[in-house]
Amino acid sequence: MATPLTETSRSELLGTLMREHRDALVSYAEKMLGDRGLAEDVVQETVIRAWRNIDRLHGMDGSVRGWLFTVTRNLVIDWVRKPHARREAVGVTYSEPVARADGTDAVHDALMVRPLLDRLSPEHRAVLVHLYLCDRSINETAGLLGVPTGTVKSRQHNALRKLREAVRPAPARPAPPVPGPRAEAVPPCTPR
Predict the structure, then answer these.
(1) CA-wise closest residue to 45 among 8, 16, 74, 80
(2) pTM tops 0.70, yes or no
(3) Domains and CATH numbers, the chain
(4) 168-180 pLDDT, tens digit each
């Protein structure tokens, strides 16, 4: 039977265990979790449990290392099973899927924009192409087209207004009147 531990020997034993096994435990937990910070948290909890069971570890017949790895594995499993493991992690956004630059967005935009641009006059179309597709400033566009900046702004405003009207759904037609008793005709308003 092992001799009882004093507070000093308990601290020394725990220090020895951590010096010998901490790095391996963190590496083991990180491989399972894929997150170094979370792995260190799990190993910290393993250290707390080792401290609470230090008397048992001191008199253990089996492998202390095996006990530490088993506790770490169980803590990782508990962590993964808990609902908080599926919540948002700090610095990571799960709300939108990762977009891949495969060109489909550009093709879609071209298919949608080309017919709309064809509805505009050549002057209005040129302004929008320079400003939005070529990413030029108003001053650069004015210089290239040989018109004042105020004209570029006016053409931009009018072209965008026409495009908004083109993509806005047509208003629904009012329902035909329901036959019923005739109301008296309302006389038109006449100016005084």
Answers:
(1) 74
(2) no
(3) 7-86 (1.10.1740.10), 104-167 (1.10.10.10)
(4) 876 667 766 666 5
